[in-house]
Amino acid sequence: MKPEETVRPTDYGTDIATHDETGVATSFHPDTGRRMKKMAVIVGAVLVAGFIGVRVDRFFKDRAVSGATEQSAAAHIPVDVIEAAPVAAAQRFTLPGQTSAWHASTIYARVNGFVGKWYSDIGDNVHKGQVLALIETPDLDAQLAAARAQLNAARAQVESRKAEAEFARTTYDRWRDSPKGVVSEQERAQKHADYDSAVAHLESAKADVALDQARVEQYLAMSQFKQVTAPFDGVITERHIDIGNLVTAGSTSATTPLYVLTQNNPMRVFVDVPQSAAADMTDLPAEVRPVNGTGEVYTAKVTRTSEALEQRSRTLRVEVDLDNAQQKLVPGMYVTVGFGLPPKGAVQIPAAALTFRAGGAQVARVDKNDRVTFQHVTIARDDGNVVELGSGVSPGDRLALNVSSQVMEGDQVQPKLVDTPASNPAAPSAQTVVPPASNPAAPSVPTVVRPASAAAPPSAQTVVRPASAASLSVSAAGDSLAPVAPVVPRSAAAVRQW
Length: 498
Known about the structure:
With 498 residues, the chain is of the alpha+beta class. It contains six helices and 28 strands. A hairpin with a 2-residue loop joins strand 18 (354-357) and strand 19 (360-366). Residues 425-498 have low confidence and may be disordered.
C-alpha cells in the first residue's frame, strides 16, 4: 500500500483574489502633450543656434586665413643681393700641402753579422762619411783570411811555373843550337813544345794570382761596410738596431733597415692642385704657412710640376722648394700653400649667386625696379667660394644669393645688399680645399668649403629645399661638385604659403 500523501497548504488562492480586486488607471494629465512639444522646440532652437554659431565662426576664420594668404602672396620675397665686382689682379688659391725632405735615405747593412756598436741616435745631426755603427763579421773575416792564403799559394805557384818555363827555354835553346846529326828534328820539336807548354802554365798561374787578388780585394771592399757611414749631411730620424742584433745584407721587405737619414735643407713642399687650376701652375709665387700656430710665412715659387694629372683624383703634383736654414720645417708637416692665380674672367661673384637649371649655369639679376631676370653665364674659373665669369654679367650688376625655385622670371623681390669677399675687390678671395678621406676605392676629389651667405633677419625663417639633379655644380674645366641644397630666407607668411 502507498503511504498517504501529505498536502501542504499555500496562499496562492488568496493572492489571486486580491489581485483581481485591484484596479488599473487608464487616464493621463491633459497638459502632458503641450509640455513635450515645448521641450522639443527648445532643444531644436538650441541645436540651430549652435550650428549657426559654428558656421559663422568658421566663415570669419576662413576669411582671415584667406586674407593672410593673399597678403603673403602679394608680399615681395626678401632676398640677399651682392654687386658683381671686377676680377682682382690675382686670385688667392689656398690648398693643403705636405713637406718632404730634400734627400731621404734608408740605410741597410751590406754585410751579414752582429751589431757591435752604434754611435748615432734619432735627432742627431751627422756629416757625410761619419760612422754611425760597427758590424762584427766573423764569417767575412774568415773568408778574407782564406782568400789571402789562396793568393799566397797562387803567387808561389807562379814562381814555380817561372822556374819550369826558364828550364824549358834553356833546354830548347841547347837542342835548337846543336849541330845537325847530333839530335833529331823530332827531339828538337819536342823541346820546343815543352817550352811553349811551360810558358802557358806560367801565364795560367799568373791568371790565378790575378783572380785570387780580385777575390781578396772583394772581401776587403766588403769589410769596409763593417762601418755604417752617413751618405750625406742630415738628421737621423729612425734607428732600428741595438748592440747584438743580427743584421742581414740586403734591402728586401723582410730585411730590417739600420737607420733612416734625411736632409732637410732645402725643404720640398708637395701640393695636389685640381685640374681647374693646373694650367696656371707655371713659375707662380707661393706662400707656405705651417699649421702650427706660429704664423710664419715662407715665400717661394713653383719649382716643378709632374706635367701629368693623377688618374684617380685628377690633380697635378706641384713642388715648391723652400730655404730651411733654421731647420724649423721638418718632413711630414701639414702646411697650407697659397698661390696667386692670374685672372681668367671679367667679374667675380660668390658661388652662392649661381643657380643651375635646365638651361645651365645662370644668375638672378635684380634690376632697378627690384625685378628678377635670369641670365645665362659662362664660368671661366670655379675657385670654390668665388667664381669668375667670362660673360653674362657686368661689374656693378646686382645678383641675388641662394635663389630658390619659387622665384620666377619677372618676380618682384625685396633686395638686401650684403657684403661678401667677392663683392669687395680689396679683400682677397681665398679658397680652402679640405683633403679627402683616405679611401683607396674612391677617387680622392677635394671637398670645397664655401662660406655661408649673410645671416637672415631675425624675423625670417630658413627653408631648406632638397637638391635636385639640376643643382649639381659643374665648372668649365669639368670639375664636379657635390649637390648643394639651396637655403632660402623666407618670411613666416611665405613659409605658410609654401
